[in-house]
Design goal:
heterodimer, A: four-stranded mixed β-sheet, 4 strands, 15% strand, B: alpha/beta, eight-stranded mixed β-sheet, six-stranded antiparallel β-barrel, 16 helices, 38% helix, elongated
Chain lengths: 132, 522
């Protein structure tokens, strides 16, 4: 809890323009003064999580099953980017578990056009309708 | 595979809309004790259902093999995060997992098919009798009906228990608390009331909903078996949560019961809902609130614990004719510790309800069952719903028992009693004996009236106390056999006419003459 508060404060300090090494130097001093040196590990871990989340949430992310799919779905990805008002070049990840298609993610919005998503949806609809 | 099934699958494939739309998602940042913290979901609402995207990190095969959807319920909207209680197996939720909005407030699927079934608070069947086809969804939380939508309580709901129907009558739309220590027969009263609805005419028979909150699964299974054996499951729904389930499900259970009840009430039907019990509900809510880091108050319960129960019980109502005239009668149960009714939760619920049936361990151990303490049990609105016949025969009993209790206390110090006092004590003992009833053996209202009329008329005079129940049984069998018309008239007229009382007086005299053996000590 306390580590999270430190991490949040650090994150805001760095966001506010203080350079990362300088911010850490000051953090060390504060931790020593308050006797909280043990918290440094958790603070760094939480801080890196924040940074990762920010990186993901700030840039559009496209996930495809195989890299060549990016070309195949280029038009649809561009459309998605437009409809999400996403700026910047999307970061592309590959995940073969998607079977095919693509997913697009940007600032808390998610579009699932993967084959896996469609097949799971189809399976659930059929099994639910057969039971009832 | 049959052709019909193949056709259905074909139709399903053809009609399925696979165009997906953008969804608002959040990311799980931490999970602990059934509560997940979500980053994102900026437009989420309180009490909205969310779905954990368990498929994202799975292969297609794994996703198809475990196709259970894991839901969560938003209960805290904080400055930076949303706190969600997980309505299922929280071990399946991992950090970094996507959480999707459903844009639906938590609701329970309902239809006439839920009657006779055992379901979870989310409407899923638990009785291995297949899926339940839903007609619609009822919101778990909703604002209770207002003053103008209601009418006064004017129709009785018979429990089948003489002591209650005569002295603490309950009306349709009332909230009557059943309170007492453990093992004093609280659940039995509720179950007997459900079983007794079998004696009501089918058209006015209420739909019964038994909500088990954090009960032992063996207890719930026994209750279901008892209801099935009594033929009461045909008009009953059981909403079950066991002690091993997560606290959010226990918290939701009574609200789901109220939601299912409202579905039937809005169709103009009468509904009886038993909440067994709200003490465990309060404990579950406390656990959930503490995990959500809401500030604790008295006995570590959150500040809104009163509001939790008041908004639940306020949903029982007798609706106006304009709204169909349906009703929800609530029988909440509270377990006290060592008879302490002044504890936090008991006082809260006592003040919310329209009366209470207080059960005492001492009476239970003395063999007085139901172990009803007539002195502090009360029904605030039920008397206006009592039938004329019952009103006429029950007036004397309360007085008789009150006098008996006073004299009984005095008797412990006095060694020599006058004849009148002795007679009063004897009469009080007989009435106490008469009001004893076996478990799962509710008595139809017309039989109660005949029995109590006879008791007031002196059918027990001259008989030893131990023969009282035998006399009652024999007398009711005699009326059933030789004067069935008396039962039929009371059942249809619900009142005692002069003609009827004359018939009963006559029957009583004949009975006493022909059953002289019951009036001598064994």
């Amino acid at each position: 809890m306390l580590a999270e508060s430190y991490a949040k404060a650090m994150y805001e300090v760095i966001e506010g323009g203080v350079s990362t090494p300088k911010a850490f130097e000051r953090l060390d001093a504060v931790l020593v003064r308050r006797g909280h040196q043990k918290l440094k590990g958790p603070i760094v871990r939480t801080l890196s999580r924040y940074a990762k989340q920010k990186a993901v949430s700030d840039a559009p992310v496209v996930t495809v099953a195989i890299e060549s799919s990016v070309k195949q779905f280029a038009k649809e990805i561009a459309n998605a980017q437009k409809s999400f008002d996403a700026t910047g070049e999307p970061t592309v990840f590959t995940d073969e578990r998607q079977v095919g298609g693509f997913t697009f993610q940007y600032k808390g919005k998610y579009l699932d056009r993967s084959y896996k998503g469609k097949l799971v949806k189809l399976y659930r609809n059929i099994t639910t309708s057969l039971i009832t | 595979m049959s052709t019909a099934i193949i056709e259905r699958i074909k139709k399903e494939i053809e009609s399925l809309d696979l165009n997906t739309f953008a969804e608002e998602v959040g990311v799980v940042t931490s999970v602990a004790d059934g509560v997940a913290e979500i980053d994102g979901l900026a437009s989420a609402q309180m009490m909205e259902m969310v779905v954990f995207d368990t498929d994202k990190d799975r292969s297609l095969k794994e996703a198809l093999e475990d196709s259970e959807v894991l839901y969560g319920l938003i209960l805290n909207l904080e400055e930076e995060v949303v706190k969600v209680v997980i309505l299922g197996e929280s071990t399946n939720v991992r950090e970094g997992m996507f959480v999707k909005r459903t844009e639906q407030l938590l609701s329970v699927p309902v239809s006439d098919d839920v009657v006779g079934r055992v379901i979870s608070p989310l409407g899923e069947p638990l009785d291995a009798r297949g899926a339940i086809k839903a007609d619609g969804h009822m919101p778990i939380e909703r604002v209770a009906f207002g003053v103008m939508d209601r009418s006064s309580v004017n129709e009785p709901i018979h429990t089948g228990i003489k002591a209650i129907d005569s002295m603490i009558p309950i009306g349709r739309g009332q909230r009557e608390l059943i309170i007492g220590d453990r093992q004093t027969g609280k659940t039995t009263i509720a179950i007997d009331t459900i079983i007794n609805q079998k004696n009501e005419p089918k058209e006015s028979r209420p739909i019964c909903i038994y909500v088990a909150i954090g009960q032992k699964q063996s207890k719930t299974a026994n209750i279901v078996r008892t209801l099935e054996e009594a033929g009461a499951m045909e008009y009953t729904t059981v909403i079950s949560t066991s002690a091993s389930e997560a606290s959010p499900l226990l918290y939701l259970a009574p609200f789901a019961g109220a939601a299912v009840g409202e579905y039937f009430m809005l169709k103009g039907k009468d509904v009886l809902v038993v909440f067994d019990d709200l003490s465990k509900h309060a404990v579950a809510y406390r656990q959930m609130s503490l995990l959500l880091r809401r500030p604790p108050g008295r006995e570590a319960y959150p500040g809104d614990i009163f509001y939790l129960h008041s908004r639940l019980l306020e949903r029982s109502a007798k609706l106006s004719e304009k709204l169909g005239g349906g009703s929800i009668t609530a029988l909440p149960i509270i377990e006290t510790q060592e008879g302490d009714v002044s504890a936090y939760i008991p006082t809260n619920v006592i003040s919310i309800t329209d009366g209470q049936i207080f059960l005492e361990g001492d009476l239970f151990n003395k063999g007085i069952r139901p172990a009803l303490n007539v002195g502090i049990s009360v029904s605030r609105v039920g008397s206006s719903a009592q039938t004329k016949a019952m009103k006429k025969v029950s007036g004397k009993i309360r007085l008789e028992l009150a006098q008996f209790r006073e004299l009984e206390a005095f008797m412990q110090f006095a060694s020599d009693l006058d004849e009148e006092t002795k007679a009063r004590i004897e009469s009080g003992r007989k009435f106490t004996e008469l009001l004893k009833q076996k478990q799962n053996n509710p008595m139809p209202f017309y039989k109660q009236v005949v029995s109590l009329y006879a008791a007031n008329g002196g059918i027990m005079d001259g008989a030893p106390v131990e023969n009282v129940r035998a006399i009652e049984d024999a007398y009711l069998s005699y009326i059933e056999r030789d004067h069935k018309k008396i039962f039929d008239t009371i059942e249809s007229e619900k009142a005692l006419t002069d003609d009827l009382t004359a018939q009963m007086d006559k029957a009583m005299t004949t009975f006493k003459d022909s059953h002289a053996n019951l009036y001598t000590a064994k």
